[in-house]
Specification:
Layout lengths: L47 E2 L8 E2 L46 H4 L2 H10 L4 H12 L14 E2 L1 H4 L3 H4 L4 H8 L9 E2 H10 L6 H12 L9 H12 L9 H15 L9 H8 L5 H4 L5
Antiparallel strand pairs: 1-2, 3-4
InterPro entries: CIBP (IPR051433), EF-hand-dom_pair (IPR011992), EF_Hand_1_Ca_BS (IPR018247), EF_hand_dom (IPR002048)
Organism: Gopherus agassizii
Keywords: Calcium, Magnesium, Metal-binding, Repeat
Length: about 290
């Protein structure tokens, strides 16, 4: 079977990436008592006073939860606080148990041997694969569904999924998991499965952190530099006048992140350094998820 994607599952090796893509974070000024920075994607979080950042300015609430199951928590020691579910946010939404009848005609459209192979190559269960097949097919016209495995869905349609449209990193997610040679962020069904596999409960922390790094590496150069970190923070706080950090706040925040994470002191965070930070967060793997 031709596989256009980079399979990540219990029965597959993590591929070598010639160019790793990296990430983002947040932090607090030294005068702050290490209370951390809310890093939320799937839940609404309270605004948090930053005593060291401009006389009581507040970090805005996280983006609307949409259908994401919970926040992504990035542990930059005192600078970022691991949040399993921000106060007032939505609880974890578990996968619905769907049998063939509930799946409509989706089960019959996916050959049994192919279903087994997808299960072997990803972290997904058969029911999760069938549900993914159903959701992906709904993005295609009736005529296109006849050859679903050969079709690509434009990024604009992928981002209509409620599980992605509220995510501030939605464009980066499409970029990382798309195998389109045009770089347009479109997805094949196998790209779609690959994405869901990484964000599933069963994926390992190592694999999740690998792909988190790639998502946060906005310029795809294999390191998280100051520009990447600034974009990451802006994604989390929003870029409106009321929520955007001042230049001095941003500089202080990024400096704190680098002091905490940049082990070799080269001014950037590489994959190993990022994974070292993630290893200190027991909640990262469970919070880095998207559930259909």
């Amino acid at each position: 079977m031709p596989r256009s994607g980079h399979w990540v599952g219990a029965g597959a090796q993590l591929p070598a990436c010639p160019t790793l893509r990296s990430g983002c974070g947040g932090g607090t000024a030294p005068s702050m008592p290490r209370s951390g920075l809310w890093v939320c994607v799937g839940g609404t979080g309270p605004s948090m006073p930053r005593s060291g950042h401009g006389g009581g300015a507040q970090l805005p609430a996280c983006p609307a939860p949409g259908s994401l199951s919970g926040p992504w928590a990035l542990p930059w020691s005192g600078f970022l606080e691991t949040v399993v579910d921000a106060p007032g946010g939505r609880g974890v939404t578990r996968l619905r148990q769907l049998g063939p009848a509930a799946m409509g005609g989706s089960a019959s459209q996916l050959p049994r041997d192919l279903l087994g192979e997808y299960q072997e190559l990803t972290f997904l269960t058969k029911q999760e694969i069938l549900l993914a097949h159903k959701r992906f097919s709904e993005l295609l016209s009736k005529e296109e569904r006849e050859s679903i495995l050969q079709k690509r869905v434009p990024k604009s349609k992928i981002l209509t999924l409620p599980e992605l449209r509220a995510n501030p990193f939605r464009d980066r997610i499409c970029r990382v998991f798309s195998t389109s040679e045009d770089g347009d962020g479109s997805m094949s069904f196998e790209d779609f499965l690959d994405m869901l596999s990484v964000f599933s409960d069963s994926a390992t922390s190592e694999i999740k952190s690998h792909y988190a790094f790639r998502i946060f590496d906005f310029d795809d150069d294999g390191t998280l530099d100051r520009k990447d970190l600034e974009k990451l923070v802006n994604c989390l706080t929003g870029e409106g006048d009321e929520t955007r950090l001042s230049e001095s706040e941003m500089d202080q925040l990024i400096q704190n992140i680098l002091e905490e994470s940049d082990i070799d002191k080269d001014g950037t965070i590489n994959l190993s350094e990022f994974q070292h930070v993630i290893s200190r967060s027991p909640d990262f793997a469970s919070s880095f998820k998207i559930v259909l």
